[in-house]
Specification:
The chain has helices spanning about 20-30, 40-45, 50-65, 70-85. The protein is mainly α and about 110 residues long.
Length: about 110
């Protein structure tokens, strides 16, 4: 099934899913987003419309779910790569990886 985004009123700058080839290529080739956080005093002095636009930009930035390379993320990535190599020639019993930790820590999005 082919979905034409403009027909559904989605924004043109919306990121395509990385599960598609085009989405993956865009993700890999795009520069990481940056966002400069205003000091609270400066944020308070913004007019209502400017504050709303600034807050929307913050939400958009955080919705990108950028993965921060912590020692734990590095180790999980390393173990995942090792398992990929080990499983490359397996026919049946493939080895798996279980990632556990507190809720809302990004396990399913990392």
């Amino acid at each position: 099934m082919v979905v034409n985004f403009p027909e559904f009123g989605m924004a043109d700058d919306r990121r395509l899913p990385t599960t598609t080839l085009e989405g993956w290529r865009r993700f890999v080739n795009s520069d990481p987003l940056t966002f400069d956080l205003l000091p609270e005093d400066d944020w308070q002095t913004l007019e209502d419309l400017a504050r709303h636009e600034y807050d929307e930009a913050r939400v958009n930035y955080h919705s990108e779910l950028i993965v921060v390379e912590t020692p734990t993320i590095h180790e999980v990535t390393h173990q995942g790569r090792l398992l990929t190599l080990v499983n490359r020639r397996e026919i049946s019993a493939r080895r798996g990886l279980i990632v556990s930790g507190p809720w809302a820590t990004g396990k399913s999005t990392g």
